[in-house]
Design goal:
The complex is a heterodimer of chains A (201) and B (536). Chain A has 201 residues and is mainly α. In chain A, strands 1-2 form a two-stranded antiparallel sheet. The N and C termini of chain A lie far apart (68 Å). In chain B, α4 packs parallel to α15, α7 runs antiparallel to α8 and α10 crosses α15. The chains are: A mainly alpha (201), B mainly alpha (536).
Chain lengths: 201, 536
């Protein structure tokens, strides 16, 4: 026997993409947090020695020949909030069903993504870290490479949102909001990476 | 509630005229019941694999000095294969598969959220498992001698973790966004609640393992110095295969018991919020997991040291144990207030959960420094109690939901007998390792160690226990296949159950519900039935 339960009205928007993006951001946050925790553990545990004049204690973590290109790193740090701003602009435009501004914001956001990738490549080129040179080399490329992969994922998400936008999906606020949420997460994640990897070193 | 006519079984018969078409349907299906059954099926294959390996290891340990079935490298890699398959090849995917198959029906959804993601999760997990198997056979696991295969091992573990994360994301999103109208979180069925807790705990803990794998992979492929090469894999990844991470993978077992107990007792679940809280409390285990540390109770040093050691120990070991105790106690309260009728599903579930409880209590004891049990086979016993206990619970869940998944009801008496044998097998395979642990038998070592106890007896018993588990799994699958072949049609609600999945035909139609129901309590189906229940 199949029992009859009271039927429900048609379901309202279920915000699946937004909820899933929030959970992906949480999981990716744990990924970056785990990497940073291990980075700090290795940094704290790096061997120390006295300087030649015996006046200073030197930590053998990052080779003294390596110079962090502060312009590129700080530019990345300063650019991320603009990326989040553009993503939020797209949300604002989507709520007003303004497809032109929504698409424009997404194009600019994608362009910012390219600039971020370019800045990261510039950092690699200028720092010339050797990956096989101790813990620092391997961990530097692992953590910045993971961050780079997350940025590229954000650009892919933005591309999908853009094509849906120009495809006339005016009711597509959820995807635009999820895209913005992801870029907010990227901003927070890079802020942590920037502080521990490029500032504290 | 009206339903679709399209039964999964019916559609398979009509379009599955060739084997290729049938395989194609399974490979590409976005039906959550098929994806879930793929996870469950392969997990049971892995259950057989670990039970056979466990039996072989027990035999080899009978006389470490004389019996040498495997040489040093092979023994080491097979020992890793055993640990790996036990946890990431069996325990984790078995319950995720159950959740994928059952949860959408329980919460009143027509489909799982992101079905292609769940499907990708299965294939990534399966492919990753295959890579791990190849790498371990080629001596590439932790402490292995083949560096290239070591890279493959890391890639395989990483891929299968991504698969488990994808499947967990799909389950959690379904529960959070696709519940029937009116079904608030506190009205959710207990199994779905446990699936939500377990999925989120998995999503928060396994990415930390992924971070270790990325570091290890980059280091291993380029320098092999910072993380200790092959040996470092054990240091940095060993925590995934042991408590408290394994507690996360058994959270859903408590949900299964909490789901089946009130149905067996024919009563509404008493103290339901307490039971949901107990299940949620187990997730505190992730605090211990993500810090990648065994928080051991060590009462030496200053008062401050003692206090911090006690707090961390209780937080990561005590709270999960308390959660399981609460969930078990409240689930069993049904039998005090209802009209109990012990069926096979309940027997499997309650015996399995008791085994899990013994495992978690064992982990609590092992993490007391003065007990001196860390690094001994006692910790192996903990993992075996959790894994084999999990298998028993899962078999109970399959017995309970077989009408919805395959359209059959299994022979209760035969399955009840298997539950008893499963209990004996689990105790035989695990408890001797507890005793051997007190006699300092080292963990995960199968030969070349000194042992001063009655080594032959304990390890023969452990081998016999694992062999018995293999037989139980084989016999259960045989019963299930025979029932499906016989095609005995199950009633829509053979257990007089409480939740939404029992309002649709057996087996469940492809899209579950033709129209959505409004839910106004935690037992919507019970509300719609003429009152036969014992008042709670």
């Amino acid at each position: 026997m199949t029992l009859a339960l009271p039927s429900a009205p048609s379901q309202t928007s279920r915000r699946q993409v937004l909820v899933a993006t929030a959970m992906v951001a949480a999981a990716a946050g744990m990924l970056i947090a785990g990497m940073l925790a291990m980075w700090m553990k290795f940094r704290a545990g790096a061997p120390t020695r006295e300087s030649a004049d015996g006046l200073k204690i030197i930590k053998d973590w990052m080779s003294k020949d390596i110079k962090v290109p502060e312009v590129a790193a700080n530019t990345m740090f300063a650019t991320f909030p603009f990326a989040a701003l553009m993503a939020q602009w797209a949300v604002y435009a989507a709520k007003r069903r303004d497809s032109q501004h929504r698409s424009l914001a997404l194009v600019i956001l994608f362009g910012i993504g390219i600039a971020l990738v370019n800045a990261q490549v510039a950092i690699y080129a200028q720092m010339e870290v050797v990956v096989s040179e101790g813990a620092f080399g391997a961990m530097f490329y692992a953590i910045t490479g993971t961050m780079l992969a997350l940025i590229v994922s954000g650009m892919a998400f933005t591309t999908v949102a853009f094509f849906r936008s120009i495809g006339g999906r005016d009711d597509d606020q959820q995807v635009i909001s999820a895209n913005a949420l992801y870029w907010y997460f990227l901003t927070a994640a890079f802020t942590a990476v920037w502080f521990f990897v490029y500032v504290q070193k | 509630m009206t339903t679709n006519d399209t039964h999964v079984g019916a559609s398979t018969k009509s379009s599955g005229s060739s084997v290729v078409a049938s395989v194609g349907q399974w490979v590409t299906s976005s039906d959550h019941k098929k994806i879930g059954r793929l996870f469950i099926g392969w997990s049971l294959v892995h259950a057989l694999e670990v039970a056979v390996l466990g039996a072989i290891f027990g035999l080899e340990r009978m006389s470490p000095s004389s019996m040498q079935i495997f040489d040093g490298d092979a023994a080491l890699q097979l020992s890793w294969l055993f640990r790996h398959v036990l946890v990431l090849g069996l325990l984790a995917p078995l319950f995720i598969g159950l959740a994928i198959a059952i949860v959408p029906m329980q919460v009143g959804s027509k489909a799982i959220a992101f079905p292609r993601l769940a499907q990708y999760g299965f294939w990534a997990w399966l492919f990753g498992s295959g890579l791990v198997l190849i790498s371990l056979i080629a001596n590439g696991g932790p402490n292995g001698g083949n560096a290239d295969m070591g890279d493959l091992f890391l890639m395989g573990v990483g891929l299968l973790i991504v698969g488990l994360l994808a499947a967990s994301l799909s389950v959690a999103t379904t529960i959070l966004t696709s519940r029937a109208p009116g079904m608030s979180l506190d009205m959710m069925p207990a199994f779905s609640w446990s699936a939500l807790i377990a999925s989120i705990a998995t999503l928060l803990s396994l990415p930390v393992a992924l971070s270790s794998i990325i570091y290890l992979y980059v280091d291993h492929t380029h320098a092999q110095n910072a993380f200790g090469g092959g040996q470092g894999m054990e240091t940095w990844l060993g925590w995934i295969y042991s408590a408290p991470q394994t507690f996360v993978f058994v959270i859903m077992a408590l949900g299964v018991l909490a789901e089946i107990a009130p149905v067996a007792a024919r009563v509404r679940q008493p103290l339901r919020p307490v039971m949901l809280g107990g299940i949620a409390l187990i997730s505190t285990a992730i605090i211990g997991a993500v810090t990648q540390t065994n928080h051991v109770l060590n009462l030496t040093g200053t008062n401050s040291d003692k206090l911090s050691s006690t707090v961390l120990f209780l937080l990561t070991n005590g709270l999960p144990l308390l959660g399981i105790l609460v969930a078990v106690a409240v689930s069993l309260l049904c039998f005090k207030e209802g009209r109990p009728s012990v069926n096979a599903a309940f027997a499997f579930a309650v015996l399995g959960v008791i085994m899990i409880l013994v495992g978690v209590a064992g982990s609590f004891l092992a993490n007391i420094d003065d007990a001196g049990l860390l690094g001994t086979s006692f910790t192996e016993g903990v993992t075996l109690y959790l894994a084999y206990g999990g298998v028993l619970v899962a078999l109970g869940a399959l017995t309970h939901w077989a009408p919805k998944l395959w359209g059959v009801v299994l022979d209760d008496k035969k399955v009840l007998g298997l539950a008893g044998l499963g209990l004996i097998g689990t105790v035989l395979s695990s408890f001797p390792l507890y005793i051997a642990g007190f006699a300092n038998q080292p963990a995960n070592v199968v030969n070349g160690f000194d042992y001063d106890g009655p080594v032959a007896l304990w390890n023969v018993l452990a081998a016999a226990g694992s062999a018995l588990i293999a037989l139980v799994v084989l016999a259960y699958v045989g019963l299930l296949v025979a029932a499906v072949r016989a095609g005995a049609g199950a009633k829509d609600d053979p257990w007089d159950a409480h939740t939404l999945e029992w309002s649709i035909p057996s087996p469940a139609p492809a899209n579950n519900f033709a129209s959505l129901a409004t839910v106004s309590s935690s037992e919507p189906l019970l509300d719609a039935k003429p009152s036969q229940e014992v008042p709670a």
